[in-house]
């Protein structure tokens, strides 16, 4: 078999309502990009080169190993995989880098083998891939959907249903990104708070998603011992809403005057 090559891309996202407690979450796409290049090899081996913000950093190895197994079981592809990943999203910071990498790898692999599927099938494969790699607790369909499709996406990961998708307003997002990583495996069980998150989920899909995002931030800070004053500071500087993103440690603030928050945050992105 001669080598087959493909490319794919996806984007980061921020949390509106965290889905870790019960699999029902809401996320919004942002314009930090991940690009993946996949080559199907004759030899049964996995090779991964990965770069984050232009620097070599190991990301996506478990996903690529699982991608080989997924292609083998679903499409009877017998060879190995060489993958290159180029990411603008720092990993394990709550900015959905894993979902973005998984989406991009799936798209690149399908491109390589000449398979054309719809967006929902890409998302199902991406969630399956993340579960196979053991890097998600719920499947994170909300994150994967916002990453791939953009907009405001609400999803039930356990039922594999997208409940709502709406276009996001053209607004800047200021990101406060600490240097430290927070792997999902380190986050405590949040299931005892599922009713409170369900209330925020209902609020978000009713249209009050910025309010839900703010309240999600306060709730997550309380549950995970983050300082809610970080959110209060963003609001005092003019943010329209702000929250801890995912399980942290990053915070995100949606605003219309990002220059007022440049001392608060590190990176200015856009909703997409």
From TrEMBL:
It comes from the Archaea. The keyword Isomerase does not apply. Pathway: Metabolic intermediate biosynthesis; chorismate biosynthesis; chorismate from D-erythrose 4-phosphate and phosphoenolpyruvate: step 5/7. GO terms for biological process: amino acid biosynthetic process; aromatic amino acid family biosynthetic process; chorismate biosynthetic process. One of its GO terms (cellular component) is cytoplasm. Its EC number is 2.7.1.71. It is found in: Cytoplasm. It catalyses: shikimate + ATP = 3-phosphoshikimate + ADP + H(+). HAMAP family: Shik_kinase_arch (MF_00370). NCBIfam families: Shik_kin_archae (TIGR01920). This is Shikimate kinase. It comes from Candidatus Methanodesulfokora washburnensis. The lineage of its organism: Archaea, Thermoproteota, Candidatus Korarchaeia, Candidatus Korarchaeia incertae sedis, Candidatus Methanodesulfokora.
């Amino acid at each position: 078999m001669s080598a087959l090559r493909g490319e794919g891309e996806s984007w980061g996202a921020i949390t509106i309502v965290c889905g870790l407690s019960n699999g029902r979450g809401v996320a919004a796409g942002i314009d930090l990009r991940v690009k993946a290049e996949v080559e199907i090899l004759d030899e049964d081996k996995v090779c991964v080169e990965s770069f984050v913000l232009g620097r070599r950093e190991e990301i996506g190895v478990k996903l690529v190993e699982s991608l080989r197994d997924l292609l083998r079981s679903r499409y009877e592809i017998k060879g190995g995989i060489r993958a290159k990943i180029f990411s603008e999203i720092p990993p394990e910071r709550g900015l959905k880098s894993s979902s973005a990498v998984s989406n991009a790898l799936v798209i690149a692999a399908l491109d390589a083998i000449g398979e054309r599927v719809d967006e929902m099938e890409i998302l199902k494969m991406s969630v399956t891939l993340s579960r196979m790699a053991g890097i998600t607790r719920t499947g994170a369909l909300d994150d994967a959907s916002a990453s791939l499709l953009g907009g405001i996406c609400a999803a039930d990961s356990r039922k594999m249903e997208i409940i709502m998708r709406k276009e996001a307003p053209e607004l800047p997002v200021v990101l406060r990104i600490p240097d430290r990583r927070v792997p999902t495996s380190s986050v405590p069980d949040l299931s005892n708070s599922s009713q409170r998150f369900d209330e925020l989920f209902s609020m978000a899909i009713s249209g009050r998603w910025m309010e839900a995002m703010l309240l999600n931030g306060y709730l997550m800070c309380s549950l995970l011992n983050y300082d809610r004053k970080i959110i209060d500071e963003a609001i005092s500087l003019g943010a329209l809403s702000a929250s801890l993103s995912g399980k942290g440690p990053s915070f995100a603030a949606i605003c219309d005057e990002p220059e007022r928050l440049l001392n608060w945050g590190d990176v200015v992105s856009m909703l997409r």
